[in-house]
Write a structure and sequence with these properties.
The protein contains 15 helices and seven strands. It has about 290 residues and is an alpha+beta fold. The strands form two sheets. The protein has a five-stranded antiparallel sheet, covered by helices on one side. It has a two-stranded antiparallel ribbon with strand order 6-7. Strand 3 and strand 4 (about 45-55) form a beta hairpin. The chain is globular and about 45 Å long.
Length: about 290
């Protein structure tokens, strides 16, 4: 089955730039970038479907081919959310063009969309996994969890995975995750979040009903989710443009690099540098993260 997915504000879209960001780790277990092709398994009506995504510039969109018939609307909605295809970057680019730090970045990475995390459970547990460790080891832990507990689809000689479901992780004991080198606290937090979702104490519907401030407080009320994690989820999953993970080490390193500072700026300095971002905070943060990728 073939589907064409339209891209809003196509003049400010670059599939190539999106692929560069999506290629940032060779330990990525949830999608594959091969040349100018992106592959990912999407679960539709409880059935894993392998999608192959390519650019379709003449149609101002993306071309998607699926391994089996599936609900086209579900495929379209998932990929649109994941790659932020419904975004309009004009206001952000106008704002960033007047900012000394952001202006060169929007020129260098023009067309990059804020690549998201399309599943709430994945977004929440990925932030926990990545707390206070380097990105490479975080990807290693994520890969181990997915390979052990995620469903899979085999195509040819390759296996493609989907992220584990909350109910699956909720049934585990912390020792299972510590055996994968998760810290004991992270193991507890991840299983706690899984149980909260499996028992519907933490729900997508509740999160979606809240404005940004209330949504942040809602997430922080769950063990293991602090201000940084909450803002990360609201930026990458919920798509709040004003979400700003101030405490993010990558953001601090990016400012150090862009401003040619001798040391990483303090949290107080980061607040000063970002206080004018407001509704542009999520995209500004994302473009600064991209500047760290070589």
């Amino acid at each position: 089955m073939k589907i064409t997915i339209p891209v809003n504000d196509h003049a400010n879209f670059s599939f190539d730039e999106c692929l560069v960001f999506l290629s940032r780790s060779d330990k990525e277990a949830l999608h594959e970038v091969a040349g100018n092709t992106l592959r990912k398994v999407i679960v539709v009506n409880n059935t894993p479907v392998l999608t192959t995504i390519t650019d379709a510039p003449k149609k101002k969109g993306l071309q998607v081919e699926t391994s089996a018939d599936a609900d086209p609307a579900a495929i379209k909605n998932y990929i649109t959310h994941w790659l932020h295809l419904d975004a309009d970057l004009n206001e952000f680019y106008t704002f960033a063009g007047k900012d000394a730090v952001l202006s060169p970045l929007i020129q260098q990475y023009k067309g990059l969309r804020l690549i998201g995390i399309p599943e709430l459970f994945e977004a929440l547990t990925w932030t926990i996994t990545g707390q206070q460790i380097n990105l490479s080891f975080a990807y290693t832990l994520k890969q181990r969890l997915i390979h052990a507990y995620g469903d899979a689809v085999t195509a040819g000689d390759k296996t493609y995975y989907v992220y584990p479901q909350p109910a699956t992780i909720a049934a585990l004991e912390p020792a299972t995750l510590t055996g994968m080198q998760f810290s004991r606290s992270k193991a507890d937090y991840i299983i706690s979040i899984a149980r909260a979702m499996a028992e519907e104490r933490l729900t997508l519907a509740q999160l979606q009903s809240l404005d940004y401030t209330a949504a942040r407080e809602y997430l922080i009320s769950f063990k293991g989710i602090g201000n940084w994690s909450a803002n990360y989820v609201l930026m990458k999953f919920s798509r709040y443009w004003q979400a700003l993970p101030l405490e993010d080490a990558g953001l601090h390193n990016a400012f150090k690099q862009q401003l040619n500072l001798a040391v990483k700026p303090s949290l107080a300095e980061i607040k000063k540098y970002t206080q004018h971002w407001q509704q542009h905070a999520a995209y500004a943060t994302f473009y600064l993260w991209r500047s760290l990728q070589q």
